[in-house]
Design brief:
This protein has 406 residues and is mainly beta. It has a domain of 248 residues: Porin (Beta Barrel). The chain has 4 helices and 18 strands. Strands 1-2-3-4-5-6-7-8-9-10-11-14-15-16-17-18 form a 16-stranded antiparallel beta sheet. The protein has a two-stranded antiparallel sheet with strand order 12-13. Strand 17 and strand 18 form a beta hairpin. The longest helix has 18 residues. The N and C termini lie far apart (90 Å).
Length: 406
């Protein structure tokens, strides 16, 4: 090949490159900076191009809306799904809250169920009292229950069920305090209330058709209680309504003083909760133990409607609400919680417990038990929806709740 042809080809190649370079994306050029400062500026400029606000996913937006809708506080209406008394069926209700000061709110709410359970209540809440060490809640309200189940005291048969009703006005105040803002928690409260018993409604016999006041303390009673309580404990959970680590160990003492000195008693509750994270909280083993004892004051009796109970969506989940009653109860629970994603957990659980009339019978013999599986939807510090399916000796039960088990 002649030298002239090589020169011509070389010139043609240079011409093509020269024509292409002006159209090439400037971002593809790799001009090397002459200084270290220039190199850092170039890297920073490339990063800025990639920065953009993170857009929440659809499910994340839906969970945020659900949490905002269910959260009390602020100036807004919200749906209210709490019953006047557990076991009354699904409640339909609403509430409205508004600010009355810095972080202080006033809240009015009410609910009703198809079986006639009614609730009307107001609440004043100051969540930052004592330099944000305490939380003060004042309540006033009225509630009615029409067909509360009663199966007897102790280990009884399911076909023994009868029902009773009551009406109850009340005013109360409760202060929860963290003196050091960590670990130690103390609480104190006072309530004045009236229990007015009435005949049970529904398809089951009314309790006063089966028992009289001599056989069962409290039948047909109208009791005015001055109720005081004091509690102390250690709490290092992230939040009470949803936690994946930490624990709570505490004791609460309740004093019920009857104006007529017939049904006064003391109730003491011991509770321990522990969450054990595994595999960076992908799994959590959660445990709960609770013992409740009650004792009548001198020459008085504990009325049947105030005895501790087991059986509900948060105690013995395979058994109906208040299936077992007694002056003393024992409850043991364990859950294996598995994180599915940031907003959803599943759980395999086991519950065991018993209700007795003598504190000496609070042992591990003849416990009522159940097992089950559940799904929970949650925000970072709150359980928004929980569904459980449980199997016990009396069959299956399905539970839906807007709160945690423990």
């Amino acid at each position: 090949m002649s030298s002239k042809r090589i020169s011509a080809n070389f010139v043609a190649l240079l011409t093509i490159v020269a024509l292409f370079l002006p159209w090439h994306d400037a971002s593809a050029q790799t001009t090397e900076p002459s200084t270290r400062t220039g190199a850092l500026e170039q890297v920073q400029a490339e990063r800025v191009k990639l920065l953009a606000p993170q857009e929440p996913e659809k499910f994340e937006r839906a969970m945020a809306r659900a949490e905002a809708m269910l959260t009390r506080g602020g100036n807004h209406w919200y749906p209210y799904f709490e019953n006047s008394y557990s076991g009354g069926g699904f409640p339909f209700g609403a509430g409205y809250s508004w600010f009355v000061g810095s972080y202080k709110t006033l809240d009015v709410r009410g609910s009703i169920t198809p079986s006639g359970y009614k609730l009307a209540e107001s609440e004043f809440l100051n969540p930052r009292i004592f330099n944000r060490r305490g939380r003060l809640a004042l309540h006033g309200g009225w509630r009615e229950a029409t067909e509360v189940p009663f199966y007897g005291l102790g280990d009884t048969r399911a076909d023994n069920r009868v029902s009773y009703g009551f009406k109850q006005p009340y005013v109360s105040g409760l202060l929860n305090l963290k003196p050091t803002r960590k670990l130690l928690v103390v609480s104190g409260g006072i309530e004045y209330t009236q229990w007015k018993l009435q005949r049970g409604e529904g398809s089951f016999p009314s309790i006063d058709d089966i028992f009289d006041a001599e056989a069962l303390a409290g039948i047909g009673a109208k009791v005015n209680y001055l109720h005081t309580q004091v509690g102390v404990g250690l709490d290092w959970r992230q939040a009470e309504e949803y936690a994946r680590r930490g624990g709570y160990y505490g004791i609460t003492v309740h004093e019920y003083n009857d104006d007529d000195d017939q049904f006064g008693f003391r109730e003491v509750q011991y509770e321990a909760i522990q969450h054990v994270p595994i595999l960076r909280e992908a799994w959590v083993l959660s445990f709960r133990g609770r013992v409740t004892t009650s004792s009548a004051k001198t020459d008085q009796r504990v009325p049947f409607f105030m005895t501790p109970s087991l059986g509900s969506g948060s105690t013995l989940r395979a058994y109906p609400t208040r299936r077992f009653r007694g002056e003393d109860t024992l409850l043991l629970q364990a859950e294996w919680r598995i994180m599915v994603n940031r907003f959803m957990d599943t759980a395999i659980f086991y519950d065991a417990g018993k209700a007795v009339q003598d504190e000496g019978d609070l042992d591990f013999d003849h416990l009522k038990t159940d097992v089950g599986f559940g799904v929970r939807f949650h925000a970072p510090f709150r359980t928004l929806l929980r569904t459980d399916v449980a199997k016990g000796s009396e069959g299956w039960r399905f539970i839906a709740s807007v709160g945690p088990v423990f």
